[in-house]
Amino acid sequence: MTRRDLVKIDAGAAVLEGMLELPASPLGVVLFAHGSGSSRHSPRNNAVAARLREAGIATLLLDLLGPDEDRSAARRFDIGLLTDRLAMAASWLGTGPLTAPLALGLFGASTGAAAALQLVARDGSGIAALVSRGVRPDLAGLDALAAVVAPTLLIVGGDDGVVVDLNRQARLLPARYG
Predict the structure, then answer these.
(1) Which of 4, 161, 164, 177 could connect to 146 by a Cys-Cys bridge, CB 3.0–4.6 Å?
(2) pTM for this one?
């Protein structure tokens, strides 16, 4: 039986809403960082989250922006703001009685993935792994990419030529700059 809780996380100027779902005996927890124009209701991310829960992994699908903020393109691409809020959510998971003992993974999409990369670069010691779907790694910045030490998987659609090239370049950064 999966436990489902609508959660609200205080993030200073905003309250982040999300859905925390925990299988009976979770092996870990994955925090989802959605991309620009997406939300915790994303069918793609919910499909991934459902598979993770079937495998015994808890999930937190979270909106990093409030509805008013999400209407602003500047906010959607404010990777620093998204990173700070993702860090607050990770900290919240790290103090929750049901989630604190669990290993933390991140799943990021688009700008949320750039924020996840920055968070892993900034505080990678507390993050077990990162999966990124459709990120433009240049949005995370070269310094952040070179500082990522957690196991990281970058997934990009084969027909997304420019983003494929950016991800290939990002894969080489630690060898080149690290």
Answers:
(1) 177
(2) 0.87
